[in-house]
Amino acid sequence: MTTQIEETKQAVKRHTIIPFTSRNINCEKFNNQTRLVVNDKYVAADSKAIMETLGIRSNLMKNIFANPAENWDVMRSAINSIDRNKRFAAIVDDNNNLVTLVNGKVENAKQLNFDDRIDRLFNTINDSASHNFQSISFDPSTCLVDINAINTDEIDCGLGDLWNFGTTSTVGLLNQQFKQFFNRLICTNGMTTQQGIAYRQDSASTHIGKQFLKYSSNRDIVNAIKPRVQKLRNARASLYEVNLIADALKKEDKEAFFPNYTNIIQDFSERGFAMKDVSAKRQRYMYTNENLYDVFNLATSLASHQRDVIGPDAAKTLNKAAGDMFAKGPALDFNLIDIYKS
Predict the structure, then answer these.
(1) Which of the four, 185, 228, 279, 326, has the lowest number of CB atoms within 10 Å?
(2) Is pLDDT larger for residue 253 or for residue 56?
């Protein structure tokens, strides 16, 4: 646990916050590709974001990138003449990549450091009788740290279906965000709906521990678990929801884990609805004969237990699909197109 936290803190500190102006941005050709370089050193991962920050529209960006040697100096001079002293800031990594732009004024380059807030939050979780630390992770594409803590309460939704809930605290340069998630206690690693049901955002503050306790003690969202579960149990899945699962799987995985999907396609085809001709919007108004909770269970089970088989991208897609079902409820609350109705 301590090693995981220290490794995350070190990953954060391998990044630096730098100031720059439009005068510090160059547009150049490199290996037959056009790129933006800041301070003659940092290569921008997202040129479009910088262009938008400078107020340059995407249609102009295409023309500039087509011939940067001729067009960029003219554009940069125009920007400087309008707002010569406007300053920007970005986070760069130790490989000289410009990772993300940030708001706020930065006078001098400085190391990115979340140590104090991470330590304060971890100590709060560790000292709490009602929370357990679960995991910590750093996203190098956004420079955000996610810290997951589980509440020790358990919610019995009947039929041996136990749930508990947790809070994801996201630590960033300028703010911290808290979002609740839910775990299904069917197995040791849990089946998680990572879709946030609600969230709160605060400015960066050393009071992060108090903010966490205040947010994670909110029982309104917790009390919503049982009715959400019951709503899924008492609903049939729309064709859209079924296809969310099927489309995430390779052909062989569909055959192995969702064999009934072939029957669904055939049923609709026999009634004049070829799957390739039914838009996603229309699928939301078409019932299948599948129970929605069974479809939800399939998604969470595959994402949790078959990740190595279906692959991490499919697992992530299924986890999000399950989260959407849980957060938003059934796609259909009324009967519009029901090919199974006698």
Answers:
(1) 279
(2) 253
